[in-house]
Amino acid sequence: MEMHNKSDIETVLAFDFGLKQIGIAFGQTITNQSTGIKIIKAKNGVPNWDEIKTIVEEWNPKTLIVGLPVNMDNSESEMSSLARTFAKDLKDRIHNSVKLMDERLSSREAKNKV
Fold first, then answer.
1. How much is the pTM?
2. How far apart are CA 1 and CA 80, in angstroms?
């Protein structure tokens, strides 16, 4: 059995950005699993920042991750640009550690796990 030091454990909140809603999941590196915790409403991609701040304070993750929608040919779309803006706002308003993650194959991977 592998032992983990508390400092080795990384906890994350992952954000699936959308114009009308933003999905939020909590994950950690012990089991490499995540659990959806909430879907919040957004208006043209703008969420209620107080609601996000409350969720971040409640879950207290080390890192925030924002899914970056990239086309299969590596080009970016308007949604990519909006997700980058959301990630920058998240960093500026809520948390100093925000990472973007290429989500191209995440839907396929999730379907394969079901």
1. 0.82
2. 41
Closest alpha carbon to 61 in 29, 18, 87:
29
Contact (Cβ atoms closer than 8 angstroms) between residue 37 and residue 23: no
Q: 79-94, pLDDT tens digit by residue?
A: 999 999 999 999 999 9
> How many CA atoms lie within 13 Å of 38's alpha carbon, on the beta-carbon side?
12
Which residues share a beta bridge with 102?
Answer: 68
* Helix pair angle (78-93, 49-59), 10° resolution: 60
Output the pLDDT for position 112.
43
Provide the token pair at 103: 């989500």
Non-local CB neighbours of 27 within 8 Å, separated by 6+ positions: 11, 12, 13, 14, 33, 34, 35
Q: What is the pLDDT of residues 43-68, one digit of tens each?
A: 999 999 999 999 999 999 999 999 99
